[in-house]
Structure formats: C-alpha cells, structure tokens
Design brief:
Length: 343
C-alpha cells in the first residue's frame, strides 16, 4: 500500500511508456563483429498495446525502498531500483526510495514482450522523475539486469538483430520493415509458454551457418523492401522454433498461409502468439485477409488482431479513400493500431 504521508514541497512525477511486439521474425544464434556466438532475435513491432509507468521520488526514504503497484510487478520493481541507482549517480544526488505505478494492456505469457515493456516504461519513468533521458543502450543494459534477457523495445521499432541476453544491437538491418499486413492469432489455446522449462539445445556449426544465411536473407529483404523474402525467413525461423514449441496447429497455419496467398508466417519463440504475413501491395488484399480469417476460424485457431508495419488497416479492409469527390481522405496516422471487431 502506498504511504499516505507526503514530504513537503513540490514532488515531480516521472512518466514513461513502452510498446510491445508480436513475437519474432527471426531468432537464433549468430556471430557478432568479433566472431563470438550470441543469441539474437529480430522482433515484429506492433503499435497499440503497451505499458505505462509513473514514478515519484521520496527524498529521505531509504534507498531501494520502492513501493510498487501492482505488487506483483517484481521485474519492474527491480528495474526501478536499478534505474534509481543510475539516475541518482548521473544527477549527482543522494539515493532515495520512491513509489512506482505500472499499467498496461499487453496480454501476459503470449511472447509479446509484456515484462520488457513494463521494465522499459519503468526505467523511463524513473529517468523522467530525475529530469533525465537515458540513452537506449543504457536502458537496454538496465533491462537485461532486471530480467536477464530483454526485447529491443527501447529502440522504438527499428528492425535490428538484437542480442537479448546482452542488451546490445548486433546489426541494424535498415530503417523499416517492408510493408506488411499481419493477421494475428494464438496457438496452443493461448496458453503461456514456460521458456525456462524448454529443453536447451546448443547450436552447432551447421546451426550457425543456417542462422547466418537467414540473417543475410533478412538483411536483403529489408534493404529491398521484399515482403515475400521476409516471409520466407520468418517461416523458416518459425519452423525451427517448432522443434521446441511444437504447437499442434503450426502445420495448419502454414497451409492456410499458402492457400490465401500470404508470404509466410511468424511466431513468438517464447509464447503462443503468431501471425500470417501478407505483402501489403498484393492484389486482392482485402479478399485474402478475410479468407485468412475464415480459414483460421474453420481450423479453430483464434484470430486476435490485424495490423500493419506502416499505417492503419482501415483502408485495406474498407477500400482506399478517394482523393476527390464526395469522400474525404482518412486521417491515417503512422503505425496506428487497428483492432478487428469480434475477434
């Protein structure tokens, strides 16, 4: 419970927020610039759900005496304490306790980065309470310390190959992903995946070569805006992930993708969320998306939301706005989320 007593004088409330993602496009073990092996991933950004945080410093309160609401956000609490240490050092002020409130609407356990989003929002809120803006690499370092591994949500959607256990960028793949439409769904009944219970298999030299080949193909897909090539990479990575996750619906999902003319599928390698990927420039896209939704329903795979990597999906489902006549152009906002009703 947050104490009712407040110190005299103005109290600055720091705020922060962070997005989520929709699982991975590519995940595996890669070589860094020095030739060392390290686990890495490329996430599929999704606007919409996210985490928010508010932090209030309490000068005079014991260091690390941080009250958290809700009380079960233990990773966020750890991140707050680490961020206070960092920010107090940078600001040259004594350590103190504080109050943290975390909110969000990201489904937990589906592999959408809910814990990382909480942690990043918290770190940003603490920094804001100190009047600071931390560099992304600092936020990444604190996030890894708070939860042992993190997603690259502090980089705001840029396609990067990210070493999640080290909190560093292995490669910037480009400014943006090719234009995609993604029909999201859940596998395995939406049950959370306990990643700690999954068997660990060390990557051998053949694995490394395969991962590096997919990395090169994804680099080319981003550089050329090739949605179909990106879909091939995502599908290959997802298929490798099934060696551990073994979702029973995965084969049905890939069959549906082929039948409706999608470029591929992607999954969360640490959860149950998945997506059918469409080239946004494909002819008959509305028909393809609706056919995908019908096929998912027929196979008992729950659809969740449709979104894009570039703008709203409103025009895709309802037709483009006319640039003249009696129908005004819609006020599309870049990376605005889109929900499909009744999904």
């Amino acid at each position: 419970m947050i104490p009712a007593a407040r110190p005299a004088g103005p109290v600055r409330t720091g705020t922060g927020d962070a997005p989520c993602h929709h699982g991975e496009i590519l995940q595996g073990v890669f070589l860094d610039g020095d030739g060392h092996r390290c686990a890495g991933l490329v996430t599929l950004p999704m606007a919409g759900p996210g985490s928010g945080a508010e932090f209030v410093r309490r000068p005079g309160a014991p260091p690390r005496a941080i009250t958290v609401v809700p009380a079960d956000r233990t990773k966020a609490a750890h991140a707050a304490a680490l961020a206070v240490d960092e920010c107090a050092r940078q600001a040259g002020v004594p350590l103190c306790g504080g109050e943290l409130r975390v909110s969000g609407d990201i489904p937990v356990g589906l592999g959408m980065g809910s814990s990382t989003s909480d942690v990043i929002a918290t770190v940003r809120a603490v920094a804001d309470a100190y009047g600071l803006r931390l560099a992304p690499e600092t936020v990444a370092r604190l996030a890894v310390r708070a939860e042992l591994a993190c997603d690259p949500l502090m980089l705001d959607g840029r396609p990067v190959l990210f070493a999640q256990r080290e909190g560093r960028v292995l490669e910037v793949l480009g400014p943006a992903l090719p234009p995609l439409v993604v029909v999201g769904c859940t596998l395995g009944g939406g049950a959370p995946v306990d990643t700690l219970a999954l068997p660990v298999r060390e990557a051998d030299a053949t694995d490394i070569r395969d991962f590096e080949r997919l990395r090169a193909l994804l680099r080319r897909a981003v550089a050329t805006g090739d949605a179909r090539l990106l879909g091939e990479v995502a599908t290959a990575s997802a298929r490798r992930g099934q060696q551990l996750l073994a979702h029973p619906e995965f084969d049905d999902l890939t069959v549906i993708a082929r039948r409706v003319g999608a470029v591929g599928v992607q999954i969360a390698h640490s959860g149950a969320v998945a997506g059918v990927l469409f080239d946004a420039a494909a002819p008959g896209l509305r028909h393809r998306v609706r056919g995908c939704l019908r096929a998912l329903d027929a196979h008992g795979i729950p659809a969740t939301r449709a979104f894009t990597t570039f703008t709203t999906i409103k025009e895709i489902l309802n037709g483009p706005a006319h640039r003249g006549g009696d129908r005004p152009a819609g006020p599309d906002t870049a990376r605005r989320p889109a929900r499909l009703s009744a999904l």
